Amino acid sequence: MKTLEQFENQPEETAVDLDDFLGIKPIEIDEQLYYHIVCAYTAAHCSYEMGKQHHVEQGGDAENSIKNLYKDEIYTYSTVASYPDNTYWYLGILPDLQRDGF
Fold first, then answer.
1. Pairing of strands 64-67, 88-95
2. Which of 29, 66, 69, 93 has the most CB atoms within 10 Å of its CB?
């Protein structure tokens, strides 16, 4: 499990950004890192309740954008999930879940 404390206490000379720090996705994260991703800089871009105590949320700032086959620009966001067993997961940088077709 990766923690916010580990991320914030990286040695300065070898520090990496959040996506590199988290490595292969999905990966379990602690509650503080979950809220850091969703709320630290801006409010969540979107939040879906998938069932009792099961949420999927995307961070507030777009990470990047991609163009689909129709040349529409689709933004990507850091995406996390929480589950009823009080576990939290970083799912990676995924396309906007609010767009039609997702």
1. unpaired
2. 29
